[in-house]
Amino acid sequence: MAEHMSGDSDAEDRFVRLDDGDMHVVEDGKPGAPAVLLIHGTGGSTAWWDPVVPPLASSYRVIRIDLLGHGRSASPADGYDIPTQARRVGAALDRLGVGQVTVIGHSTGGSVATALAEQRHDAVTALALIDTGPSLDADLEQGLLGRLLLAPLPGRLLWGLRTDGTIRKAMRTAFTRHVDIPDAIIASARGMTYRAIAGTMRAALNYLGQRSVPARLAALGLPVLVIFGTDDQRWRSSSAETYRAVPGARVELLRGVGHTPMMEDPQTTSALLVDFAATAGHPN
Prior knowledge:
Blueprint (H helix, E strand, L loop, with lengths): L11 E5 L6 E7 L5 E5 L13 H5 L3 E5 L16 H14 L5 E6 L1 H12 L4 E7 L12 H8 L1 H9 L3 H7 L12 H8 L3 H17 L2 H8 L3 E6 L20 E5 L6 H4 L1 H16 L3
Parallel strand pairs: 3-4, 3-5, 5-6, 6-7, 7-8
Antiparallel strand pairs: 1-2, 2-4
């Protein structure tokens, strides 16, 4: 059994064999309980969820995955578009014997969660999106560095020069409140290939360019929870209001919190997720 990066001795750490490469999976909680799936964002990994796992694991079977090209999952040459990422997640759930699941996604992970619900409406019972940009016009300009990363030649050169220090600096916009970023998170991001980071960044923008997330959610008719930090530095926080157009959607704004509520305010975030999973995803 591989070692779990967060150091949680109760977690079950494994690899699920898929056609285009293994997917890294971490499970916590009660095996026979209702399932909750956690999907990280661009450059993330299972470790980004560590602060909110214990409250969820007390009542649920909590499944975390590393998306294609992230963490300890495979990094093939292609397949980073959002629908393909979602199909891989669905295949992993099938391998794990998961019938129905509440899906929680952070940032780009929210887009993957939405695509999974579009593909597997029979399996996804509810969706919670954390600081997931609803559309392209909500994107805050990330400056010259972000543009250069998406340009193949300078992007490859810049990524080849990355260090732990430059990765930490690039992550500053992910947090408004002070957060001690674990070394495991830095190591995971630094270990990504250029094709994985750039491919995921492009895929996230392409998915939003085709159709907004609120429009996609409205067509699904599922219970939806949206959590958004009012001080998000990557997506315009006022754009969270567009999710209110989704019938029955619940929108929660966290004051003074940035792009990563599960690390900046894990207590409030986990309480919202536990309540949502109980009432919407798995009603009594």
